[in-house]
Amino acid sequence: MKKRLLYLVMILTLALGVTFTQEGFGASVSAGMSGGSCQVGKTVTVTLTYSGAELFGATATLSYDSSALTLTNVQGGSGVTVTRNGNIVLLETMGSSTMSVTFTFSANKSGKYNVTATTSSGLTFSGEEFQCGARTATITVSEPPSKDNTSGSSGSSSSGSSSSSSSSSSG
């Protein structure tokens, strides 16, 4: 009798274990963000890029010092549709392995400023969710040259610091 009860418990455990176990395929997606530098009164771009699995979309919230930087434009990369609501950005693509968005800022005052994009959710084309957390880029803004300076500096954008890492999740 005890053996039968033991066998029954083992069979039920195996059956329920198989029934409630989900197999995860492990979507691996990385995110990176690049910054730049400019002079006060000029513009600078910051690019957020996702890469890895075939991507469908992601939602990111942008944070920055709005007294020093003014967001003037948001542009999706090739094949990427961008919807913006304040500082929340939704990116959508159709199965591409990369997805990017470029933010253009006008610089209001000199200094070093962080622009952070926090990915609250993402989805691959196969329906797997991913999260890449916060990525930060640094923008360096300098004062324009004085009028008596003949160095001819144009104040164009150049590369700055960036952050990148990857995220893996199982569905």
What is the compact description of this entry?
With 171 residues, the chain is mainly beta. It has one helix at residues 2-20; strands spanning 27-39, 43-63, 69-76, 81-85, 88-107, 111-124, 129-130, 133-142, 158-169. The two termini are 41 Å apart.
Can you put this structure into words, describing what you see?
With 171 residues, the protein is mainly β. The protein is 11% helix and 61% strand. The chain contains 1 helix and 9 strands. It has one helix spanning 2-20, and strands at 27-39, 43-63, 69-76, 81-85, 88-107, 111-124, 129-130, 133-142, 158-169. Strands 1, 2, 3, 4, 5, 6, 7, 8 and 9 form a 9-stranded mixed β-sheet that branches. It is elongated. Residues 5-26 and 152-171 have low confidence and may be disordered.
| Oligomeric state, counting identical vs distinct chains | single chain
| Mean pLDDT across every amino acid position | 78
Low-pLDDT runs: 5-26, 152-171
Tertiary shape: elongated
Rg result: 24 Å
Q: Which structural class is indicated by helix and strand composition? A: mainly beta
What is the end-to-end distance? 41 Å
Helix amount, in percent? 10-25%
String of helices and strands: HEEEEEEEEE
Strand proportion, as a percent range, falls in over 45%
The strand count comes to 9
Our count of helices gives: 1
Major beta-sheet overview: 9 strands, mixed
Secondary structure: elements and pairs:
Blueprint: H1 2-20, E1 27-39, E2 43-63, E3 69-76, E4 81-85, E5 88-107, E6 111-124, E7 129-130, E8 133-142, E9 158-169
Parallel strand pairs: 1-8
Antiparallel strand pairs: 1-2, 1-9, 2-5, 2-6, 3-5, 4-5, 6-7, 6-8
